[in-house]
Specification:
Helix 1 packs antiparallel against helix 10 and helix 5 runs antiparallel to helix 8. The strands form three sheets. This protein has a four-stranded antiparallel β-sheet, with helices on both faces. The radius of gyration is 35 Å and the shape is elongated. Strand 3 and strand 4 form a beta hairpin. The chain is an alpha+beta fold and about 375 residues long. Helices cover about 45% and strands about 15% of the residues. The two termini are about 15 Å apart. Belongs to the V-ATPase C subunit family. Keywords: Hydrogen ion transport, Ion transport, Transport. This is V-type proton ATPase subunit C.
């Protein structure tokens, strides 16, 4: 499952023993996989200052979750030809999201715990804003790249009248660097192949005998070469048109053809490079959880957080019952509300997180749903 429960309880002896009981029961019952979740000791200030941060943390929580989902969707769009590989490209700090969450370590370099908590929150907010700016920039660049690539691919998918010929013709099909001779490309309807073979040499003076060759076909006709003297090009075009043969305006330029092919290869390569790495913004919940712990348990800071990964959806109800039983002593009213949804719980909540005897924060990594 990609669902995690981040829970926390006061770090005194009684509750540390309760956490151990929880680990024992959930492990024996195969309800969840549990790991300690380390949150550093922040310079929290007063409870009043924490309450002042509550609105901003709630907004950051919602914004960060939305941003992460938009980033995941961007990965899906970029990997349109390899959707089966999308999960392995949703990375944080170079690892899959599950590993990132279960082995989470606070980045002290980016978010120094010695700074006042309000400064840490401000730094996180600025980072999220920068990530959103980068995402918009990358999205715009990708859309431009995709449009250019689609235009080039469309040019190679049209009929013989409109499509690019750089991937069809070769140097050997043409007489090049001649002062007098030139090779033209003529589109001939399929029913007129025999007529072309009989008449092309006589459509004009100075047509080189036996110089025609079929080099490509589509559903409607074929692309033939013909070599003649430059001086009769206009006359030949006129006569060809009268016979329903169309001279395609094309002159072989090896440098231009090479440029077209390289441009297509470059765009395809650039598109693959857009897969990139999923930025490590999955920490959005940690400060929120920290705030809830402090708001619930007060100062000084003393609590222990644990990350639970329920083993299967059907076990979550039983897991909730176990947690409710273990931590009932923390809040009898909240414990009762787990069994009776009609009980009204006044007090602290963050966003849409449910209220339990222990602090509970839900993390869902199902970013593609």
């Amino acid at each position: 499952m990609s669902e995690f429960w981040l829970i926390s309880a006061p770090g005194d002896k009684e509750n540390l023993q309760a956490l151990e009981r929880m680990n024992t029961v959930t492990s024996k019952s195969n309800l969840s996989y549990n790991t300690k979740f380390s949150i550093p000791d922040f310079k929290v200030g007063t409870l009043d200052s924490l309450v002042g941060l509550s609105d901003e943390l709630g907004k950051l929580d919602t914004f960060a979750e939305s941003l992460i989902k938009r980033m995941a969707q961007s990965v899906v769009e970029v990997m349109e030809d390899s959707k089966g590989k999308v999960p392995e490209n949703l990375l944080a700090n170079g690892v899959d999201l599950t590993s990132f969450v279960t082995h989470f370590e606070w980045d002290m370099a980016k978010y120094p715990a010695k700074q006042p908590l309000v400064c840490v929150v401000d730094t996180l907010a600025k980072q999220l804003a920068q990530i959103e700016t980068d995402l918009k920039s990358r999205t715009a660049a990708y859309n431009t790249l995709k449009t250019n690539l689609e235009n080039l691919e469309k040019q190679s998918m049209g009929n013989l009248f409109t499509r690019t010929l750089s991937d069809i013709v070769s140097k050997e099909d043409f007489v090049l660097d001649s002062e007098y001779l030139v090779t033209l490309l003529v589109i001939v309807p399929k029913p007129s192949y025999a007529q072309w073979q009989k008449t092309y040499e006589s459509l004009s003076d100075m047509v080189v005998p036996r110089s025609t060759k079929l080099i490509a076909e589509d559903n409607e006709g074929g692309l033939f070469t013909v070599t003649l003297f430059r001086k009769v090009i206009d006359d030949f075009k006129t006569k060809a048109k009268e016979n329903k043969f169309t001279v395609r305006e094309f002159y072989y330029d090896e440098k231009e053809i090479k440029r077209e092919r390289e441009e297509l290869s470059r765009l395809l390569s650039d598109k693959k490079q857009q897969y990139g790495c999923f930025p490590p913004v999955s920490i959005w919940g940690n400060l929120s959880a920290h705030f809830v712990c402090l708001g619930r348990y007060g100062l000084p800071v003393n609590f222990q957080a644990v990350l639970l990964q329920p083993h299967k959806k059907s076990s979550t109800k039983r897991l909730r019952e176990v947690l409710n039983s273990v931590f009932r002593h923390l809040d009898q009213v909240a414990a009762a509300s787990v069994l009776d949804a009609s009980v009204d719980i006044p007090g602290l909540q963050l966003g849409n997180q449910d209220y339990f005897p222990y602090v509970y924060f839900h993390i869902d990594l199902s970013l593609l749903d």
